[in-house]
Known about the structure:
Blueprint: H1 2-17, E1 26-40, E2 49-63, E3 67-82, E4 87-88, E5 91-92, E6 96-113, E7 117-135, E8 138-139, E9 143-145, E10 150-151, E11 183-184, E12 188-190, E13 192-205, E14 208-217, E15 222-227, E16 235-254, H2 256-273
Amino acid sequence: MKLRNLLLIIAFFLTSFFNPLNAQLFKGEVFGGVGFAQVDGDDCYGYKRIKGQVGAGVLLNVVNDWLDVGLEIVYNPKGAYKRDSISYSSYYAGSYDLKLNYMEIPVMVYFIDKHRYSLGIGASYGRLIGFSEKVNGVETDTRIGDGKLRWKDGHSGEDLSSIRTIEDLDKPEFYDSEGHLLIENSNSYRKHDFSFCADARIRIWRGLHAQLRYQYSFVPIRTRLLYQDAGGTVPSKVRLQYNNQFSLRLTYIFGEDLTKLNKVIGKEEKQQRR
């Protein structure tokens, strides 16, 4: 019920935004597939977080049948996974398992060729609705928040969001009299994710399409300190982390035959006016 109501709101928005033309037509879509994700900046490499995704959306044919604008709702898990050991310098850090579950709203523009092929480009807003992070099988104290570095308890100072490299930590106010760093690692992931989207789609049977989509975060989801020692006292890197994902999915589009019919009717009306 909630999904249907949201789709009706989306349809109303699209209707209000574009002036109604004879060639315009709404189409619905449902899809499901598999996402292959990693988090750039955690030193765990490979698209090894593999999870299913599902969603639905509406498409509006804006210019004849070669340009569609679409709005979607997607449940899209992301994250990172590393079963092997991870070594920073000379110590063993073990396995890593990060799950980030998002509800996303992508806005896409599709360029269509004869309703068989299409290329899409757009942007997506994602809301982090749940996550877990384990190191060596042990749950960390990470939570949903702003994803920024933080001052240690009992200390405060300037906003730390400008720290992007290890050189940015080279300030005397960041250390105590004994040379210990007064800044701690971030203990949260940003609740909001904004990402770039690009995809390619091919019709394989009637309204059924095979689709490949790529997404990458515009802004960091977390800032991490990586350390030289197992105790986490000597920082070696400052890493900005970004979601990075490929998705393979099957999409069924309702109303494509009506769009083709709409184009034929438009041509006939033009010929009659002549």
